[in-house]
Amino acid sequence: MANNDGTGEASGSDIQAVDRVGQICSLFGPHTTELTAAEVAERLGLNRTTAYRYCASMVTAGILDRGPRRSTFVLGGLMLQLGIHALSRRRVTEVAPPHLAELSAAVRMTAVLSLWGARGPVVTLVEEDRTRSAVVTVRAGTGLDATAAQTRVFLAHLTDERAFGWMTEGSTSAQRAELEAAVYTARRSGYCIASQSGGVFTAAAPVFDEYGIAATVGLLGADPDADLSADSPIITALLRTTTALSNELRGRPDGSTDDHSEL
C-alpha cells in the first residue's frame, strides 16, 4: 500500500485498503474462527477475486493464516501477538480477576469484564459461579450488541460520539429511541439492567481510570425472582466491585475518586 504522491501522506486508496483489512479482521470472532474468501466477499459486498487478493495479501503480512480446511483463512500470528500486547497495556485485566471472583461468589452469578473494542464492547474476562451445576455464561472474545447492559453502560460514558452510531447501524427509529433512553438511565443511575432472550438478565456498571471509562463489569443471571432494585444485594455488590476497581486503577487505596458521572 505504497503512497506515490510525494506528499508523505496516505492516499485515498491506501486508506481504503487499511479500512478493508480492518473490516475483514472484524468478521472473525468466537463463533467465526475461519472464513473462505467467498464468505468474506459475501459479507462485505466484494467480488470474490478482490476478497481473495486481500486475504492472500493478509496471509503474507501475518495478519491471516491458511485455515485447516481447504480455501479457509484464520487470524494469523501477528494478530495474536498484537492482541497480547494490547491486553497487557490494559491494567484493568491484571487487577480485575480477584475482584470478579469475589463478586461472583458473593452473588452466585457469572461475573464478566468487558473492554471497548474496535466498534463495540468485547468480553475479556469471565468468572463463572462454581457453586452451581448449571450456569449462565458467555465466552471471552464475544462481541456485545446494543441490547447488552455493558454496551449501554459504555455508551453512557464514552466521549466518542461515533460509538452510538456504530451500535445502532441498521436499527429502526424505535430501537434507537429505546437505546437512547436506556443510555440516559445508565448515565444517571450509575448502572444498567437489561433483559436478554431465554429469561436471562444482565446488570452492568462502569470501571474508570484516570482517562475515563476503562471497562465494564457485568453480572449474568436467569432467576426471574432476583431482586435488582437499587439497594439490593446484587446491585450493591456490583457497584462495590466497580468502585474498588476504579479506585485501584486510579491508585487511590483510600477510596477517594474523581466524579465521571457526567462523561
TrEMBL record:
The keyword Glycoprotein does not apply. Keywords: DNA-binding, Transcription, Transcription regulation. Gene3D superfamilies: 3.30.450.40, Winged helix-like DNA-binding domain superfamily/Winged helix DNA-binding domain. SMART domains: HTH_ICLR. GO terms for molecular function: DNA binding; DNA-binding transcription factor activity. Residues 78-251 form the IclR-ED domain. It comes from the Bacteria. Pfam families: HTH_IclR, IclR_C. GO terms for biological process: negative regulation of DNA-templated transcription. InterPro entries: GAF-like_dom_sf, HTH_MetabolicPath_Reg, Tscrpt_reg_IclR_C, Tscrpt_reg_IclR_N, WH-like_DNA-bd_sf, WH_DNA-bd_sf. Residues 15-77 form the HTH iclR-type domain. This is IclR family transcriptional regulator.
